[in-house]
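Fig. S4 source data, part A: sequence.
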Amino acid sequence: MSKFTFENMTYWKSTSKYILSFPEIRFVGVVNNMGNLVVGDYKKGIVPIAEIDQYKMCMEHALELFMKKDLDSTLGPLDYIVSKRKNVAIITIPVRDYLVLISTEPDAKIEPIIEEILQSLNGIQEDKRI
């Protein structure tokens, strides 16, 4: 995990706390366009499932999103990607030059969570400091 914390990145601090407040959320992180985890945190009491492969996972999601950007001109910009696995669901949301990477419990109702998270990210999308 990066030495940076959400507290050191004020524009992510309140949003990350909000996202982690959902009962089904396990992890929230911010990945840069190089696939590096810039900042992230697990919900208190959560045991990471894939901590060893975290770097690989971030790179995979960054690559997937940036490859899909080629279709933006015909299909429109990508709102989010969901990867559902047996033990976890992973939501990837592009925010300017970053990806917000969120993991949830596998049985979480994804759509309502995504809708609320997208609303909370609107302020970050418009923030010129990012």
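Fig. S4 source data, part B ends here. The longest helix spans residues 110-126.
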